[in-house]
Amino acid sequence: MESVNIKQRRRLRRMLLIVLIFFIFFVIRVGFIQFVQGEKLQQGAYDQQTLDRAINAKRGTIYDATGKSILAISASVETVTVNPTNIPKDKKEPLAKFLSETYDLDYESTLKKINKKSSIETIVRKIEKEEADKLRVWLEDNNITTGVNIDEDTKRYYPNNELASQIIGFCGSDNQGLNGIEAKFDKLLVGEKGKISRATDAKGAELEGTSEKYVASKNGKDLILSIDWSIQSIVEKYLKQACIDNVCTDGGNIIVMNPKTGDVLAMATYPNYNLNSPYEPNTEELKSVWDSLSKDEKNNSLQKMWRNKAIADSYEPGSTFKLITASAALEEGITTTDKEGEFNCTGSIEVGGVKIKCWRYYRPHGAQSLREGLMNSCNPVFIGLGQKLGKDKYYEYLEKFGLLSKTGIDLPGEANSIFLDKAKVGPVELGTISFGQRFEITPIQLITAVSAIANKGIMNEPRIVKKSIDTETGEIEEYPVVEKGRVISEKTANDVLNMMESVVAQGTGKNAQVKGYTVGGKTGTSEDGVNTNKYVTSFIGVTPISDPELVILITLYNPTGEGGHQGGGVAAPIASQVLTDILAYMEVEKDNEEEVIENVEIPEVRDITLDEAIKKLKDSGLEYEINVEEKDINKKEVVVKNQFPLPGIKVINGSTIELEV
């Protein structure tokens, strides 16, 4: 009897233990549901019992620097969605037929959406109100009151089509910025979505007697750029013409900057594209092969089309970089601007056992001052300065001028320069860097560095956005000028500007002269890669020299036209055209009363003797250079095989024509 009681007590204890375990598990489970999953389950219940339709906010407007010209704007449109479970069965096929015919949709896929068991399906996005009104009338005529929604939406428009396309960028169908300013400042521009909520049953059907709850969207902030619509238009006009006239197979770009603030007044890339149709090919050549391209090839072509070469592509700057070497050498007291005969060009210079030629090796420049060396763009002069500076000091100045790091401009996709690691730089490498070859920088890096020279030696970070405006509150947020510090002294900066003025007045940059203004500059011609037979032609200029307001950089990739590929003959004349129009638009006070030397047309001198060619050029007011030593040839017998630039092109009186015999 006693053993039976013991067994019963044990059984009772086990049962109590099991009950206790279940109770503890129940408490833990309730606690887990309440405190861990509570918010998620509550949201799930809400989602099951309500139907939300998002309302896109209107993106902020993008204005130019004046605040008057609109570069990007959002307009009100409408989007059609359906709640399939709320559409009467007998109305589904007629509705699908009407929608497909009215909005040019596939009938079968439209009907499939209307027959789905989902809570909401999108039929057509971003249609104009007039198009949506056709559906409203049809719904009323067919007595359909539930299941079809016509909600407000926004659509991005670009009033100027191609203008500043690589800067502004564009948006996707979901109102998200995908490129340029639209992508970089997406969080400011996009605003906050609104919604329309309505109570539903478990199957997603609307509950009778309930009304929709409307939560308004909040518009995005407006942006004021540094880009000036008028200046951008001028730049794009001349860039396009230059690329066409000079047959630039890889396009080109122009940047115009205010050196006092770092404001980018214009930044153009050619070819550009239409922001309102960014997925369509932008050149006749691309259009002709578009349908034959694979999906990957099309995507690569679009990426190339959207690419802002001014900040995303690096290149060898060539002789424009001699301004950096000259600045460093003057700042360190290694040289002065006008010491007569300080340098002697014999046509080449030996560095580390390697002979490096001057571009005019066939007729050496002889004794020169630094000013004359810059005017003649003489390579040995700058190789010698690089040697005297040494690689440690030279790399210090590369860093000071911001050439070893990105500029920080507020645009996506900025690339960095490509320099050899300092430890790997020997005498030959330092020599080639000193005159602008065997390394790569971006156009934005170069113009930012030269703008420091134009700004009395002080560098500013490039600025592309000046301010944002909250359209709801009117609150303005300024984007201040960011000063990055002094690079060179004011005296050195003035000395370099003075030499740049000589380059345009008497040197290789003559074709960049602007009537009524002092212009300083430097031409550049470099190889685009090793052994590619491609060239990059460039010119960087500053004006007015007395009080610089503008710095301009023109970069043309692989010009193959009759004008050749020399910076002085191809890029410098474009600078003259662009600056003439911009200075007039800005009403900048003139500072040069001297008349600009008039243009003359280059005569035809091919297939005649060198003696006859020289006379013809002299009679036209032009100088000449020959690709061989004059003393080694008989001018009356040797025939000119080629000339650069070619005949018919207009250049400044006194310009030098290269002759090949």
Which tags fit this structure?
661 residues, Penicillin-binding protein 2a (Domain 2), 7-stranded mixed beta sheet, 5-stranded antiparallel beta sheet, elongated
Description:
The protein is of the alpha+beta class and 661 residues long. It folds into 4 domains: 2-36; 51-223, Penicillin-binding protein 2a (Domain 2) (Alpha-Beta Complex); 314-596, 3-Layer(aba) Sandwich (Beta-lactamase); 597-661, Trypsin Inhibitor V, Chain A (2-Layer Sandwich). The chain is 37% helix and 21% strand. It has 20 helices and 26 strands. Strands 2, 3, 4, 5, 8, 16 and 17 form a 7-stranded mixed beta sheet that branches. Strands 10-9-21-20-19 form a 5-stranded antiparallel beta sheet, sandwiched between helices. A 3-stranded antiparallel beta sheet has the order 1-6-7. A hairpin with a 6-residue loop joins β20 and β21. α3 (89-102) runs antiparallel to α4 and α14 packs across α18 (490-506). The longest helix has 35 residues, at 2-36. The radius of gyration is 35 Å and the shape is elongated. It starts with a helix and ends with a strand.
Summarize the structure in short.
The chain is α+β, with helices and mostly antiparallel strands and 661 residues long. 37% of the residues lie in helices and 21% in strands. The protein has 4 domains: 2-36; 51-223, Penicillin-binding protein 2a (Domain 2) (Alpha-Beta Complex); 314-596, 3-Layer(aba) Sandwich (Beta-lactamase); 597-661, 2-Layer Sandwich (Trypsin Inhibitor V, Chain A).
